[in-house]
Write a structure and sequence with these properties.
Largest sheet: 6 strands, mixed
Structural class: alpha/beta
Order of helices and strands: HHHHEHEHEHHEHEHE
Shape: globular
Number of strands: 6
Number of domains: 2
Bound molecules: cobalamin
CATH topology of the largest domain: Rossmann fold
CATH class of the largest domain: Alpha Beta
Strand content: 5-15%
Strand order of the largest sheet: 2-1-3-4-5-6
């Protein structure tokens, strides 16, 4: 039953069927399926569409349609994750967004959803966020953590600009910076002076827990993590 629903939601994403994706997400939640597993199934389907796009087996409209289907299902899973996390004391404040010049939104949205579910207060600034806006939001919300996403190689360097701006404004020590997204590697994160990198949204939560001084479930982290913490 679980596998059936997960397979079906993957097919709905790959088939650009927003209505079905949303209905299946609702069904998954109503039958008690872990929303994280549903996210994983959707991400796998999205990644496969991306792979097919890269090798010329499908076209941009397929990519957009699959992304739309994923976004149609996401709020239902978001609500369930948040519902499970309600009434917890905030573990810290996170400002998040995708860097300037980059309009990819799905990954950072997942990161934000899981952070909210884990008990963090999150301000998601959205896409193509200017360095000044990241820094202003960190100041305004007195954020403990800044989470930046970049999927385009050409805009990945924007993360460094934000870190430099934090330094220039004397704010670098007050906020932990975590970076991620398809264009980012741990090596890159180290070079730009970030505090941590994770390749997944689940890892981002573990890293946020680590930053917040909370107990970290090491089993959740695939690779990446706080920079300088591993041999
Ligand atoms: C969907 C998609 C789109 C959609 C985006 C829709 C939307 N609302 O977001 C649309 C069609 C609009 C799009 C547009 C473009 N795209 Co596009 N897109 C993708 C695709 C297929 C999937 C991205 C995605 O959503 N993945 C699913 C999510 C869940 O994964 P994710 O974002 O990586 O996030 C996970 C982790 O990285 C991590 N994470 C993410 N952020 C953060 C942040 C922190 C702090 C942490 C710790 C972790 C973390 O957690 C997430 C969950 O585990 C990728 C290919 C791919 N395989 O990644 C290309 C891809 C990213 N796109 C690409 C390109 C080039 C473009 C375009 C320039 C157009 C084009 N020629 O195709 C434009 C960009 C316009 C712009 N200015 O940004 C390239 C980038 C190449 C590069 N390295 O520079 C890719 C890799 C495809 C390719 N190989 O050609 N795209």
């Amino acid at each position: 039953m679980e596998t059936e629903v997960l397979d079906a939601i993957g097919s709905a994403i790959a088939g650009c069927n927003s209505r079905e994706a949303a209905e299946l997400a609702r069904k998954a939640v109503d039958t008690g399926l872990d929303p994280l597993r549903v996210f994983e199934a959707m991400t796998a389907a999205m990644t496969e569409v991306g792979r097919r796009f890269e090798v010329g087996e499908c076209w941009l409209p397929d990519l957009v349609g699959a992304a739309d289907a994923m976004q149609a299902a996401t709020p239902i899973l978001d609500d369930e994750i948040k519902r499970k996390g309600v009434a917890r004391q905030s573990l810290g404040t996170v400002v998040a967004g995708t860097v300037q010049g980059d309009i990819h939104t799905i990954g950072i949205q997942m990161v934000c959803t899981l952070l909210v579910g884990a008990g963090f207060t999150v301000y998601n600034l959205g896409i193509s966020v200017a360095p000044e806006d990241f820094v202003a939001a960190v100041r305004e919300h007195e954020a403990n953590i800044l989470a930046m996403s970049a999927l385009l190689t050409v805009s990945a360097r924007e993360q460094e600009k934000v870190i430099e701006l934090l330094k220039a404004q004397g704010m670098r020590e007050s906020v932990k910076v975590m970076v991620g997204g398809g264009a980012i590697t741990e090596d890159f994160a180290t070079r730009i002076g970030a505090d941590g990198y994770e390749p997944s949204a689940v890892g981002a939560v573990a890293l946020a827990h680590h930053f917040a001084g909370q107990q970290q479930d090491a089993g959740q982290t695939s690779s990446g993590g706080p920079i300088g913490s591993r041999p």
